[in-house]
Amino acid sequence: MNLDPRQTEAFRVVIETGSFEQAAVRLHLTPPAISQRVRALESTLGSALVVRSRPCRATEAGQRLLQYLRRAMLLEDDLLAALAQREDAPLVVVAALNADSLGTWFFPALAEVLIRERVLLDLTVEDQDHTYNLLESGLAIACISTEARPMRGCSASALGRMRYRLVASRDFVRRSFSAGFTREAARRAPVVAYTRKDTLQSSFLLRRFGLPAGAYPSHYVPGAEPHFNAIRHGLGYGMVPELLLSDVLASGEMLDLAADEPLDISLYWHTWTVQSPRMEHLSRQIIEAAPKILAWPL
User: Fold this and answer.
1) For residue 267, what pLDDT is reported?
2) What fold, for 163-264?
3) Measured between alpha carbons, how far is 145 from 128 in angstroms, rounded to an integer?
4) Closest to 267 in 3D by CA, of 243, 248, 246, 232
5) What is the pLDDT of residues 40-68, one digit of tens each?
6) Of the options 3.40.190.10, 3.40.1010.20, 1.10.10.60, 3.40.50.150, the CATH number for the domain spanning 62-160+266-292
Protein backbone atom coordinates (compact mmCIF):
# COMPACT_ATOMS: atom_id res chain seq x y z
CA MET A 1 0.00 0.00 0.00
CA ASN A 2 1.36 3.41 -1.01
CA LEU A 3 0.19 6.54 0.78
CA ASP A 4 -0.70 9.47 -1.47
CA PRO A 5 1.45 12.42 -0.31
CA ARG A 6 -1.27 14.93 -1.23
CA GLN A 7 -3.77 13.06 0.91
CA THR A 8 -1.43 12.69 3.88
CA GLU A 9 -0.51 16.37 3.67
CA ALA A 10 -4.19 17.35 3.70
CA PHE A 11 -4.80 15.14 6.74
CA ARG A 12 -1.77 16.48 8.61
CA VAL A 13 -2.66 20.13 8.01
CA VAL A 14 -6.29 19.56 9.07
CA ILE A 15 -5.07 18.29 12.43
CA GLU A 16 -2.45 21.04 12.77
CA THR A 17 -4.90 23.86 11.98
CA GLY A 18 -7.99 22.29 13.56
CA SER A 19 -10.30 22.68 10.60
CA PHE A 20 -10.79 21.82 6.93
CA GLU A 21 -11.26 25.51 6.16
CA GLN A 22 -7.93 26.59 7.66
CA ALA A 23 -6.19 23.65 6.00
CA ALA A 24 -7.61 24.79 2.67
CA VAL A 25 -6.23 28.29 3.22
CA ARG A 26 -2.76 26.99 4.07
CA LEU A 27 -2.64 24.61 1.09
CA HIS A 28 -4.32 27.03 -1.33
CA LEU A 29 -7.19 24.64 -2.02
CA THR A 30 -10.92 24.61 -1.38
CA PRO A 31 -12.42 22.98 1.74
CA PRO A 32 -14.22 20.36 -0.42
CA ALA A 33 -10.90 19.42 -2.04
CA ILE A 34 -9.32 18.97 1.41
CA SER A 35 -12.28 16.89 2.55
CA GLN A 36 -12.09 14.74 -0.58
CA ARG A 37 -8.41 14.00 -0.01
CA VAL A 38 -8.91 13.10 3.65
CA ARG A 39 -11.86 10.83 2.83
CA ALA A 40 -9.82 9.13 0.12
CA LEU A 41 -7.03 8.50 2.63
CA GLU A 42 -9.52 7.13 5.15
CA SER A 43 -10.90 4.84 2.47
CA THR A 44 -7.41 3.62 1.56
CA LEU A 45 -6.53 2.85 5.19
CA GLY A 46 -9.97 1.54 6.09
CA SER A 47 -10.17 3.69 9.21
CA ALA A 48 -11.61 7.04 10.26
CA LEU A 49 -8.71 9.42 10.82
CA VAL A 50 -10.39 12.69 11.79
CA VAL A 51 -13.03 13.48 14.39
CA ARG A 52 -14.95 16.20 12.60
CA SER A 53 -15.48 18.47 15.57
CA ARG A 54 -14.42 22.02 16.42
CA PRO A 55 -11.48 21.87 16.43
CA CYS A 56 -10.91 18.76 14.35
CA ARG A 57 -8.81 16.13 16.10
CA ALA A 58 -7.22 12.84 15.17
CA THR A 59 -8.80 9.51 16.00
CA GLU A 60 -6.62 6.81 17.54
CA ALA A 61 -5.73 5.59 14.04
CA GLY A 62 -5.16 9.19 12.99
CA GLN A 63 -2.78 9.75 15.89
CA ARG A 64 -0.69 6.77 14.82
CA LEU A 65 -0.59 8.06 11.24
CA LEU A 66 0.35 11.56 12.42
CA GLN A 67 3.21 10.13 14.50
CA TYR A 68 4.49 8.29 11.42
CA LEU A 69 4.17 11.35 9.16
CA ARG A 70 6.09 13.65 11.50
CA ARG A 71 8.91 11.16 11.90
CA ALA A 72 9.02 10.53 8.15
CA MET A 73 9.28 14.28 7.50
CA LEU A 74 12.29 14.53 9.79
CA LEU A 75 14.03 11.59 8.16
CA GLU A 76 13.30 12.95 4.69
CA ASP A 77 14.65 16.41 5.57
CA ASP A 78 17.83 14.86 6.92
CA LEU A 79 18.27 12.70 3.82
CA LEU A 80 17.70 15.58 1.40
CA ALA A 81 20.12 17.80 3.31
CA ALA A 82 22.76 15.06 3.26
CA LEU A 83 22.31 14.33 -0.46
CA ALA A 84 22.53 18.01 -1.27
CA GLN A 85 25.52 18.29 1.08
CA ARG A 86 23.73 21.12 2.86
CA GLU A 87 25.34 21.17 6.27
CA ASP A 88 23.56 24.42 7.05
CA ALA A 89 20.04 23.03 6.53
CA PRO A 90 17.89 23.75 9.62
CA LEU A 91 16.35 20.99 11.74
CA VAL A 92 12.69 21.67 12.56
CA VAL A 93 11.75 20.30 15.99
CA VAL A 94 8.08 20.16 16.97
CA ALA A 95 8.15 19.74 20.74
CA ALA A 96 5.88 20.16 23.76
CA LEU A 97 7.12 21.51 27.08
CA ASN A 98 5.84 23.18 30.21
CA ALA A 99 5.81 26.94 30.73
CA ASP A 100 8.17 26.83 33.72
CA SER A 101 10.85 25.03 31.71
CA LEU A 102 10.44 27.51 28.87
CA GLY A 103 10.57 30.46 31.28
CA THR A 104 13.56 29.31 33.32
CA TRP A 105 16.20 26.76 32.31
CA PHE A 106 15.35 25.75 28.72
CA PHE A 107 17.06 28.57 26.81
CA PRO A 108 19.98 29.17 29.21
CA ALA A 109 20.81 25.46 29.10
CA LEU A 110 20.11 24.78 25.44
CA ALA A 111 20.55 28.01 23.43
CA GLU A 112 24.14 27.16 22.48
CA VAL A 113 23.09 23.67 21.37
CA LEU A 114 20.08 24.94 19.41
CA ILE A 115 22.17 27.55 17.59
CA ARG A 116 25.04 25.16 16.86
CA GLU A 117 22.71 22.46 15.52
CA ARG A 118 20.69 25.02 13.50
CA VAL A 119 17.39 24.04 15.12
CA LEU A 120 14.12 25.76 14.26
CA LEU A 121 11.67 25.34 17.14
CA ASP A 122 7.94 24.78 16.83
CA LEU A 123 6.92 24.67 20.48
CA THR A 124 3.62 23.92 22.18
CA VAL A 125 3.35 24.99 25.81
CA GLU A 126 1.30 22.71 28.04
CA ASP A 127 1.20 21.65 31.69
CA GLN A 128 4.10 19.29 32.43
CA ASP A 129 1.67 16.50 33.32
CA HIS A 130 0.00 16.77 29.90
CA THR A 131 2.85 17.31 27.39
CA TYR A 132 3.13 13.52 27.12
CA ASN A 133 -0.35 13.44 25.59
CA LEU A 134 0.80 15.65 22.70
CA LEU A 135 3.62 13.23 21.87
CA GLU A 136 1.19 10.33 22.13
CA SER A 137 -1.30 12.04 19.81
CA GLY A 138 1.36 12.78 17.17
CA LEU A 139 1.21 16.56 17.62
CA ALA A 140 4.84 16.62 18.79
CA ILE A 141 7.94 14.55 18.03
CA ALA A 142 9.47 15.22 21.45
CA CYS A 143 8.37 16.50 24.82
CA ILE A 144 9.48 17.40 28.33
CA SER A 145 7.24 15.65 30.81
CA THR A 146 6.91 14.49 34.42
CA GLU A 147 6.12 11.00 33.07
CA ALA A 148 9.11 8.69 33.60
CA ARG A 149 7.68 5.81 31.58
CA PRO A 150 8.26 5.98 27.81
CA MET A 151 5.39 5.07 25.56
CA ARG A 152 5.84 2.27 23.06
CA GLY A 153 8.47 3.12 20.45
CA CYS A 154 9.89 6.00 22.48
CA SER A 155 12.67 6.58 24.97
CA ALA A 156 12.58 8.67 28.15
CA SER A 157 15.73 10.21 29.64
CA ALA A 158 16.02 12.01 32.97
CA LEU A 159 16.82 15.74 32.74
CA GLY A 160 16.84 16.66 36.43
CA ARG A 161 14.56 18.14 39.06
CA MET A 162 12.83 21.51 39.07
CA ARG A 163 12.34 22.75 42.62
CA TYR A 164 9.28 24.85 43.48
CA ARG A 165 8.58 26.98 46.54
CA LEU A 166 5.24 28.26 47.81
CA VAL A 167 5.68 32.03 47.94
CA ALA A 168 3.81 35.30 48.33
CA SER A 169 4.63 38.97 48.42
CA ARG A 170 5.34 40.54 51.80
CA ASP A 171 2.19 42.72 51.51
CA PHE A 172 0.03 39.69 50.66
CA VAL A 173 1.33 37.81 53.70
CA ARG A 174 0.52 40.84 55.87
CA ARG A 175 -3.04 40.95 54.51
CA SER A 176 -3.86 37.24 54.29
CA PHE A 177 -1.56 35.39 56.69
CA SER A 178 -1.00 37.88 59.50
CA ALA A 179 -1.82 35.16 62.05
CA GLY A 180 0.23 32.55 60.20
CA PHE A 181 -0.18 30.20 57.25
CA THR A 182 -3.07 28.21 58.72
CA ARG A 183 -5.83 26.06 57.29
CA GLU A 184 -8.48 28.70 57.96
CA ALA A 185 -6.39 31.45 56.34
CA ALA A 186 -5.68 29.22 53.33
CA ARG A 187 -9.45 28.73 52.82
CA ARG A 188 -9.84 32.50 52.27
CA ALA A 189 -6.61 33.48 50.51
CA PRO A 190 -6.54 33.32 46.69
CA VAL A 191 -4.13 30.93 44.99
CA VAL A 192 -2.50 31.78 41.64
CA ALA A 193 -2.37 28.77 39.31
CA TYR A 194 -1.43 28.61 35.63
CA THR A 195 -4.58 26.88 34.41
CA ARG A 196 -7.12 24.43 35.77
CA LYS A 197 -4.73 21.65 34.76
CA ASP A 198 -2.08 23.01 37.13
CA THR A 199 -2.19 20.85 40.27
CA LEU A 200 0.97 22.06 42.06
CA GLN A 201 -0.91 24.33 44.46
CA SER A 202 -3.96 22.11 44.89
CA SER A 203 -1.84 19.03 45.64
CA PHE A 204 0.13 20.93 48.26
CA LEU A 205 -2.96 22.33 50.01
CA LEU A 206 -4.63 18.93 50.00
CA ARG A 207 -1.55 17.32 51.52
CA ARG A 208 -0.85 20.10 54.04
CA PHE A 209 -4.35 21.10 55.16
CA GLY A 210 -6.70 18.54 53.63
CA LEU A 211 -8.24 21.28 51.46
CA PRO A 212 -9.61 19.96 48.16
CA ALA A 213 -9.58 21.98 44.95
CA GLY A 214 -12.46 24.44 45.00
CA ALA A 215 -12.28 24.97 48.77
CA TYR A 216 -10.40 28.26 48.26
CA PRO A 217 -10.43 31.07 45.66
CA SER A 218 -8.12 30.77 42.66
CA HIS A 219 -6.69 32.99 39.94
CA TYR A 220 -5.68 31.36 36.64
CA VAL A 221 -2.74 33.13 35.00
CA PRO A 222 -0.99 31.16 32.23
CA GLY A 223 2.67 31.69 31.38
CA ALA A 224 5.72 31.60 33.64
CA GLU A 225 6.34 35.36 33.72
CA PRO A 226 2.69 36.51 34.07
CA HIS A 227 2.10 33.87 36.76
CA PHE A 228 5.17 35.02 38.69
CA ASN A 229 4.23 38.69 38.31
CA ALA A 230 0.69 38.08 39.59
CA ILE A 231 2.15 36.57 42.77
CA ARG A 232 4.89 39.18 43.02
CA HIS A 233 2.33 42.00 42.86
CA GLY A 234 0.16 40.52 45.58
CA LEU A 235 -2.81 39.02 43.76
CA GLY A 236 -2.32 35.69 45.52
CA TYR A 237 0.21 33.05 46.43
CA GLY A 238 1.47 30.00 44.58
CA MET A 239 4.23 27.61 43.57
CA VAL A 240 7.11 29.31 41.72
CA PRO A 241 10.32 27.72 40.37
CA GLU A 242 13.23 28.30 42.75
CA LEU A 243 15.26 29.42 39.71
CA LEU A 244 13.18 32.64 39.64
CA LEU A 245 13.32 33.40 43.36
CA SER A 246 16.88 33.99 44.53
CA ASP A 247 16.79 37.81 44.32
CA VAL A 248 13.25 38.40 45.63
CA LEU A 249 13.67 36.01 48.57
CA ALA A 250 17.08 37.45 49.46
CA SER A 251 15.71 41.02 49.41
CA GLY A 252 12.64 40.09 51.46
CA GLU A 253 10.29 41.25 48.71
CA MET A 254 8.71 37.79 48.71
CA LEU A 255 8.40 35.23 51.48
CA ASP A 256 8.56 31.43 51.46
CA LEU A 257 5.38 30.15 53.12
CA ALA A 258 6.65 26.58 53.47
CA ALA A 259 10.43 26.76 53.62
CA ASP A 260 10.56 23.28 55.12
CA GLU A 261 8.50 21.76 52.33
CA PRO A 262 9.82 22.56 48.83
CA LEU A 263 8.33 20.63 45.94
CA ASP A 264 10.65 18.81 43.54
CA ILE A 265 9.32 17.87 40.09
CA SER A 266 11.35 15.39 38.04
CA LEU A 267 11.48 16.09 34.30
CA TYR A 268 12.15 13.69 31.42
CA TRP A 269 12.95 14.11 27.73
CA HIS A 270 10.78 11.88 25.55
CA THR A 271 11.43 11.21 21.90
CA TRP A 272 11.08 8.43 19.36
CA THR A 273 13.58 5.58 19.49
CA VAL A 274 13.87 5.56 15.70
CA GLN A 275 14.62 9.10 14.58
CA SER A 276 16.80 11.04 12.20
CA PRO A 277 20.56 11.15 12.96
CA ARG A 278 20.43 14.90 13.62
CA MET A 279 17.45 14.55 15.98
CA GLU A 280 19.22 11.72 17.78
CA HIS A 281 22.31 13.92 18.16
CA LEU A 282 20.18 16.84 19.40
CA SER A 283 18.51 14.60 21.99
CA ARG A 284 21.92 13.59 23.36
CA GLN A 285 22.92 17.25 23.58
CA ILE A 286 19.74 18.16 25.46
CA ILE A 287 20.15 15.27 27.91
CA GLU A 288 23.72 16.39 28.63
CA ALA A 289 22.96 20.13 28.90
CA ALA A 290 19.80 20.20 31.05
CA PRO A 291 21.34 18.80 34.28
CA LYS A 292 23.86 21.66 34.31
CA ILE A 293 20.99 23.92 35.45
CA LEU A 294 18.39 21.54 36.83
CA ALA A 295 18.99 19.80 40.17
CA TRP A 296 20.53 16.35 39.94
CA PRO A 297 20.16 13.48 40.73
CA LEU A 298 16.42 12.87 40.50
Assistant:
1) 95
2) D-Maltodextrin-Binding Protein; domain 2 (3.40.190)
3) 5
4) 243
5) 999 888 889 999 988 999 998 998 898 88
6) 3.40.190.10
